[in-house]
């Protein structure tokens, strides 16, 4: 990975840059659930969300910066409901120009490390990925995620129904 890229937890003042990155990704790839229109959140709402994430023991948001620009985002999104607060939902998006540089690998390693650390309550990590997204599937398999199910018609892209894989990894002792 490029040594100039710095990975850290997002802070509230990153909000505008986070939304800019998500808009960029939305137009660069059809692999995200979000459409080409990108996120509809305001900067203020994103700012508040990041503030809450910093206090959370089930959610973490990492950003990768090349100088001042966010070029990658990786998140474990937890659930506040007591019956589900051991489950973290993973998402990751890297700007196309930076694909294949092991940035995805490094960010996923940091997420898993956080999930396994004493500051997390998580016991199960899960994610969904389009079956055709071979690069992402390879990344998740490499990290130790296992395929649980294939969901036929799990997503619709430009009128085409696509298979979606549900993958998971157990973390921590119970
Ligand atoms: C998927 C994504 C996060 C991967 O990040 P990345 O930085 O490009 O990945 P890495 O460089 O760390 O490579 C990950 C693995 O994929 C492999 N890989 C690269 N291109 C591949 C391809 N076309 N097919 C299969 N595997 C491929 C790499 O060789 C590497 O495996 P290895 O370490 O065993 O060699 C990134 O490409 C991305 O954000 N894509 C768009 C959004 C997306 O798809 N997000 C996931 C939605 S579930």
Verbal overview:
The chain is of the alpha+beta class and about 170 residues long. It has a domain at about 5-125: 3-Layer(aba) Sandwich (Aminopeptidase). It is built from four helices and seven strands; from the N terminus they run βααβββαβαββ. A seven-stranded mixed β-sheet has the order 1-2-3-4-5-7-6, sandwiched between helices. The chain is globular, with a radius of gyration of 16 Å. The model has no long low-confidence stretch (mean pLDDT about 95). The protein binds coenzyme A. The site of coenzyme A has 21 residues, from strand 4, helix 3 and helix 4.
Give the gist of this structure:
The protein has 174 residues and is an alpha+beta fold. Helices cover 29% and strands 34% of the residues. The protein has helices spanning 15-28, 43-55, 103-116, 134-143; strands at residues 5-9, 60-66, 69-77, 87-94, 124-130, 146-157, 160-170.
How is the secondary structure organized here?
Layout: E1 5-9, H1 15-28, H2 43-55, E2 60-66, E3 69-77, E4 87-94, H3 103-116, E5 124-130, H4 134-143, E6 146-157, E7 160-170
Parallel strand pairs: 4-5
Antiparallel strand pairs: 1-2, 2-3, 3-4, 5-7, 6-7
Helix pairs in contact: 1-2
The site of coenzyme A has 21 residues, from strand 4, helix 3 and helix 4.
């Amino acid at each position: 990975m490029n040594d100039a890229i710095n990975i850290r937890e997002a802070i509230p003042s990153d909000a505008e840059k986070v939304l800019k990155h998500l808009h960029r990704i939305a137009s660069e790839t059809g692999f995200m659930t979000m459409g080409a229109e990108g996120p509809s959140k305001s900067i203020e709402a994103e700012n508040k969300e990041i503030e809450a994430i910093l206090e959370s023991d089930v959610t973490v948001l990492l950003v990768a910066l090349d100088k001042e620009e966010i070029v990658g985002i990786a998140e474990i999104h937890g659930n506040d409901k007591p019956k589900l607060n051991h489950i973290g939902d993973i998402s990751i998006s890297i700007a196309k120009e930076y694909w294949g540089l092991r940035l995805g690998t490094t960010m996923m390693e940091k997420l898993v490390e956080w999930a396994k650390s004493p500051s997390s309550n998580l016991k199960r990590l899960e994610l969904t990925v389009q079956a055709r997204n071979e690069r992402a599937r390879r990344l998740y398999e490499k990290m130790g995620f296992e395929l649980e199910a294939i969901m036929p018609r799990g997503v619709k892209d430009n009128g085409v129904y696509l298979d979606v894989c549900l993958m998971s990894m157990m973390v921590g002792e119970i």
